[in-house]
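Suppose you are handed only two things: the residues of a chain and a line of SMILES describing flavin mononucleotide. What would the bound structure be? This form records exactly that question and the answer produced for it, so the two can be stored side by side and reused later without any lookup.

QUESTION INPUTS
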Amino acid sequence: MGRLQLTTAGESHGPALVAVLAGLPHGLQVTQEAIDRDLARRQAGFGRGGRMALEQDRVEVLAGLRGGRTLGAPLALAVRNRDFDRWRDVMDPFAQPTAEAKALTRPRPGHVDLAGALKLGLTDARDVLERSSARSTAARVAAGSVAKALLADCGVELMAHVTRIGEVVAPAVQQDFVAARERAEASEVRCADPGASAAMHEAIAAAQRDGDSLGGVVEVIAWNVPPGLGSHAEWSERLDGRLAQAVMSIQAIKGVEVGLGFAASQQRGSQVHDAIVHDGRRFRRPTNRAGGIEGGLTNGEPVVVRAAMKPIPTLARPLPSVDFETKQPFDAQKERTDACAVPAAAVVAEAAVALALADALLDKTGGDTMDEVRAHLRAFEEQLAAR
Ligand SMILES: Cc1cc2nc3c(=O)[nH]c(=O)nc-3n(C[C@H](O)[C@H](O)[C@H](O)COP(=O)(O)O)c2cc1C
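ANSWER OUTPUT
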């Protein structure tokens, strides 16, 4: 990240998840309702396990906000884990855990357990899995909600939806994003197409019945994005690279594409690149195969980022594993788990994209206050209109 710096802390069953977001301008309006709404969106979706029904996340603001406006100082957000009360004997920050309490000694294939235990020399993976669990995405979603507020103030809107669950694929969303967003928000699998939603629901239910899990693909679209965000000049500043890092770092995401992505490699240049026209007001592209980014910069078209999520590793019918200590074969350990978290991952991806875009927007506008950010953006837009 550039000017915006996000640090998160917190264990899955510890006291709370925490996000510290530094670099925000003074005077950005932030509401508890908006952050809680995004936290609730992350918890929803058919295929989640019992944990989500228990938690009902709410944000607590610990620093950086006064009267609903940012102070131009680091913003500290916390989301309490209600489950902590029931896990005190395992997760108390000071008291020794009771012997063998919730030890994870038979590592789950596909999860952090084995790699983390090898890294830290553990025979109980609890210390690594607590932190690496996707429960930590609640902190990123809370911070992402603030980034969305900044983007909305500057006219930028986002939607996040599911385009694939296992073998079920939804038709592409190419226009009328507001209506598509409404349909996705109303779908229990966060899919904008009602027919595909029903088929996705059925596919998840079938995996659940078999004690198995399913992955899928999520897509985030941001529109009204000003051109020129990111950088053509340095690899680490290129916006597609920044978006890929932000989204790839979400647990279980194994592929990220911008625009056509991998499909661009199979077609000729004339079928891949977007013609340039001028409509009397601004430069436009009749198609958006580039996904709104060329040369590391936004080009004024909607930014389209897709991510592939692998199936959840914890299985009700576990794969073979071995015991850390005895090295004897055992089935991998069970933890309470989701069967499919692709709808939730869409909300996390939206937060990751919002943070990367807000960061790039602030790089472009500068400004200590929201008034300055808005004025600098207006001046840039006037300059574009005068071309
Ligand atoms: C929103 C969300 C929820 C998840 N829920 C679970 C879960 O309930 N059980 C599980 O085993 N993995 C779950 N995962 C995936 C694991 O956290 C992830 O596979 C694991 O941390 C290993 O990281 P890696 O897949 O990126 O290598 C979830 C991921 C996301 C994004």
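WHAT STANDS OUT: The pocket of flavin mononucleotide is lined by residues 49, 110-112, 132-134, 137, 250-252, 310, 312-314, 337-338, 341, 344-345, 348 (CB under 6 Å). The chain has one domain: 5-385.
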